[in-house]
Each structure stands twice: as structure tokens, then as C-alpha cells.
Amino acid sequence: MKLVAQGLGWKAAGRAIVQGVDLDLVPGETFGLIGPNGSGKSTLLRLIAGLLPRAQGQVWLDGTPLHRMPRREIARRIALVSQHADTTETLTVRDAVELGRTPWLSAFSPFSDLDRQIVDDALDAVEMRHLAGQGWPSLSGGERQRVQIARALAQRPRLLILDEPTNHLDIHHQLALLRLVAGLDMTVVMALHDLNQAMGCDRVGVMQGGRMVACGRPADVISTALLSETFRVGARILTDPADDSLLYRFHMLENDG
Amino acid sequence: MSGATASLRALAAVSAGGLAVLMLAVMAGIVIGEAPLPLSAVLEVLSVRLFGADTLLDPIDAGIIWNYRLPRTLVAASCGAALSLSGLVLQSLVRNALADPYLLGVSAGASTGAVAVTILGVGGELIEHFRRCLCRCGAGLSDRRAAGARGGRRGGADGAGGHRRVAAFQRADVLFIAKSANAEQARGIMFWLLGNLSGVRWPDVTLAVPIAVLGFAACLIHARALDAFSFGTESAASLGVPVRRVQLVLIGAVTLMAAVMVSLVGAIGFVGLVIPHAMRFVVGVRHFRLIPATALAGAVFLIAADIVSRMLIAGQVVPIGVVTALVGAPGFAIILIRNRARA
Predict the structure, then answer these.
(1) What stretch of H or E contains A49?
(2) For residues A239 and B56, which has the higher predicted lDDT (pLDDT)?
(3) Conformation bin of residue A78: beta by default, left when phi > 0, alpha when psi is -120 to 50
(4) Where are the domains of chain B?
(5) Closest CA to A146 of A128, A132, A164, A130
(6) Span B2-342: which CATH code?
(7) How does A180-201 read in b/e, with b if 16+ C-beta sit within 10 Å?
(8) Is the pLDDT of residue A92 over 70?
(9) Min Cα separation A175/chain B (Å)
(10) Chain B residue with minimum CA distance to A74
(11) Which of A56, B188, B277, B313 is 20 to 30 Å from B8 at the Cα level?
(12) pLDDT beyond 80 at B276
């Protein structure tokens, strides 16, 4: 699915959190969003999903303006996993994933065998099927994160938006998630903090102070100059002899603090 | 295909069972009272009235059954269902376990209006007072909306302070007005503050039952949307729920249900708080099951509370609000403690 965004901006309490961001997502690509804390990554993701009121700018999905589409139509195309979604309800894992079918079901249409299959597949994809009957309060942070991702997959979107999806995940599940995302037949936009993980994306956008200051192939964009300027760290770039992939090793800048 | 048929059959069986339980409760509400009436008499009166059968029944018994006990029980059932549904929907929308029409001030606002009418009569003073009550109700609502918005960001059980403040405000208001009442008026005021089903007649039934049924339908249609609110308003929006419209419709339905019921029988507390939580234990948190279960349990609970209020002290009717509070206050405490343990 083709998503075009122009002049995206959003203010909170008079302060511009995001301003003047243009974005053009190529169907099927994995787009990484990087930037320091407070640079506007999460807000930009929610703007793309059309979830913020009083937003500036415009988003088009396959040529249709997002604000003209009913929420249900948007939810059939775009799924979002945000960082803070939590509940005090004692839902089971399966209940939470079944919520993903909401945009595809009317008020009284019963859950079909196909819906059940989609939910099972989503649970399998994040290795949570064996915990399907578990109650939400008993889950760890990482398990909750994986359930949220399964819920988004059960939505069967064409654009998957993930806000720091590897947060809370152990290293096995971080790698499993990145492999899952790479294998998905859909466009993915995700905010990432681990720059080595961002290297695996097709393209990355760099956010700083609410603006997208760079965008392109990771190897072209992520440079030592950018790292010292945007992230205020120094880095040495190493090459893994096994597959010649680039790795960053970070250190504080000498003149910092 | 067979799966769908089986689930339809299960749905029909459960609905029939629920209706049967409701009928039994209504029967109990009619039969049990200061003057116990045999079930056969009740059935006879019903068959006479509904199907035009012939009867040799004592006209006094027939009058008690048809003109007093039956409308009273039907209104009790409607009120129980409506108030517990109101509580359930508010809890789900606001994502606050302590939300309830009584605590959020909807009931208190309605009582204030009623008491003001009792004492101040109709006049400029009253209108001015009513305007202020409305403003306060508005403040309560926007407070609640703000709490909902906050909940969207960080699953908050924190908005209740504001709602209780509004409710307390209106209680104080009621007490302030009540101070200027004479003894006759004071008896009437107790009715609005603690609830009373004694004056219920058929015209009340024709208002209470349709409102309860409509409210139930409005809630049931939004069952999926209410499920989607479990992770907050933003999550609901990203699942395709038109959040603003659903909030407007449901808060409107809840306010209408609570206001109508309070106008008929006074402010009966704790039903909306305790029944939905009890039902979450029994049928789980999915609203397609939770809404019918809550409506049924609320109806049965209030019929039972009405029976207890008539039987507790011989020769006297204890205000039904006292009975619901006897059950509800400990329930409220349990919910508070459980919530704290989870936080």
C-alpha cells in the first residue's frame, strides 16, 4: 500500500512536537524511524495512523486522503502497536488478540472459523499460542508486547506501525521479531532505539527536534557525523567478518558533560 | 457452518435460560411480601389480564397483584438492569473500576433537581438553581471525558477523585436545600436520597421498561466497540472504532437510563458498581456476554433488594437504597482493595 504524507505537524500546549515532515512509503518496504528521546518519533507514527486531533498536513492512502476515510476503513489498512497500551481488565491473551478482528466484524457478526484461524496464526507468529488462555495481569512486559504485536497482525493490515517494538523483549524475541517483520508481506514503519537493528531496515528516517533531518538507506544515513550531531555519541564502525555487515560501537563524546 | 449453528443454538439456550430466571425473579417479587400470595393466584391474575380468562379470585388480592406488586417488580427489574448497565458502560468507557452513575454524580444531580422541586417549587429561584446544577453536571461530564483521555495514555484508575468531588458537591447541595424543608417535605426528600418503590404504578412501568430495553439494545450493539476500549481510546480508534460517536451515544444512553430511573424511584446506589464487577468474575470481560449477564443480574438483584426492603422489618419498608448499600458498601471496599493490590 502506498502512503504519502506531506507537511505533517502537531503541537501540544503550544510547543511543536512534530513539524513539516514529508514521507513517502514504498509498498512493502521496512522503514525505520530513529532519533533521540523527545524527537517526535511516536507522535509522527500516530500522525501517520491518523490518530491525533488537530493535526497539520495531509496523509494519503493509495491516493485517498486519510481524513476522508471512516475509522473502520483505516483500521483495515493500518495497524498500530503503541508503547503504552495497557489495561486493568483481566483479558486473556486470546481475548486481546481477537480485538484485532474488530474492524472486520460488524456489531453482530459472529467470529468465523477464518477469524479464529487468523488469530491462531498471529499467536503462532509471536510464539504466544501456548499462553493463549493466560490472563493479562500475569504476563510480563515482553509477553504483553508480543500480544500487542499479535493483535496488530490479526488486524491483517497492509501497513504495520510499531512504536519501539523491541522494547521489553529479550534478545531471542528481539531477533525473532525482526525476522518476523522482515518476512511480512506488508509495509512496516517502526521506531527503533537500537541503531544496529535500524541497519536491517530498507530505509531509515532520522528525527531531531520534531523534524526529519535525514532519510535514506541506513548505510548512507547513519554516519559518525550524524551520530555525534543528533545522538551526541561517538561511534566506531566495525565490520562483522562473517557477513561483512556493519556494526556500531558507541562511546560518549570527549567534550560531553 | 456447523460451528455457527451450534453457537446460535447455545445463544438461544442461554437467552431462554436468562429469560426464565428473570420470570422466576418477577414471580418471587410478586408472591413474597407482607401479605404472601399463592403463586396460583398470581398466575390466575396474569391469565385473566393477559388472555381474558374467567376468574373467581378475591378482587383485593387481584388488585394487590395487578396494581401494586407487578408494576413494582417490573420497575425494580428495569431499574436494576438500567443502573447496572450504566455502571458497566461507564467503567468500560472511562476505564475506571470505580465508575458508577451514583458515584459520578449523575444520580446525585438528578436528586438535587428533584429535591429542589420539592422545596423551592417552580420559580425563578428554581430555574437559577437548576442552571447551576446543569453546569455542575457538565463539569462532571467533562471531568470524566478528561479522565478518559488521560486513561488512553496510561491506564489510569485516577479520575474518580474528580467525579466523587462532583457527586459530593451535589450531595451537599441536596443537604443545603433539605435544611429549609419541613417534616412533610423531608419525608419526600428521603425518597429521592435513598430510593423507594412504594409509589410505583403502571404508568411508571410504561416508561421504565422501554427505557431499560432501549438502553440494553444500545449497549449490546456497541459490545465490540466497548471491548476495543479495554486498551484505551487511542487503541479503540486504531481498531476502527469511531471513538467520539460511540462515547456520545453511550454516555447519552447511560445518562438517560440513570436519569429516568432516578426520577421514578430515587437514587439507588451501588447497583452500578457491584453488579458489573461481580459479573466480570462470572462470565469474563467480553461485553457480548457481560452486557446481558449484567442486565439480568442487576434486574434480579434489585427485585431481591426490594423484597428484602419489604420484609426486613415487619410492618415497615426500609428504603431500598439502604439494602443495596448493605451489599454494595462491602463490595465497594473489596473492589478498592483489589485495585490497590493490582496497581
Answers:
(1) none
(2) A239
(3) beta
(4) 2-342
(5) A128
(6) 1.10.3470.10
(7) bbeeeebbbbbbbebbebbbbb
(8) yes
(9) 26
(10) B240
(11) B277
(12) yes
What's phi and psi for B27, nearest 5 deg?
-60, -45
Residue B149 has pLDDT above 50, yes or no: no
Instruction: Give the distance from residue B168's alpha carbon to the nearest chain A alpha carbon, in angstroms.
Output: 26
What percentage of residues in chain A have a pLDDT greater than 90?
Answer: 63
- Chain A residues in contact with B239 by the CB 8 A cut-off are 75, 99-100, 102-103, 155
pLDDT for A66 equals: 92
Closest Cα in chain A, distance from residue B28 (Å): 33
Residue ranges of domains in chain A, CATH in brackets: 3-222 (3.40.50.300), 223-257 (no CATH)
Residue of B nearest to A91 (CA): B285
B156/B154 Cα distance (integer angstroms): 5
**pLDDT confidence of residue A72:** 94
Query: Structure pTM?
Result: 0.82
Let me know: does A193 contact A222? Beta carbons within 8 Å.
Answer: no
**ipTM, 2 dp:** 0.89
- Contact criterion met (CB < 8 Å) for B230 and A70: no
The reply to whether A71 touches chain B by the CB within 8 Å rule is: yes
Test A71 with B222 for CB contact under 8 angstroms. Answer: no
**Cβ-based neighbours of B246, under 8 Å, separated by 6 or more:** B222, B225, B236
Query: Can you tell me the distance from the alpha carbon of B133 to that of B50, in angstroms, rounded to the nearest whole number?
Result: 43
Q: What is the mean pLDDT of residues A43-69?
A: 92
B-chain residues near A103 (CB < 8 A): 239-240
**Which three cell numbers, joined as nine digits, stand for A164?**
519501539
Closest Cα of chain B to A66: distance in Å? Answer: 13
Residue B319, φ and ψ in degrees, nearest 5: -55, 135
Chain A residue with minimal CA distance to B153? Answer: A84
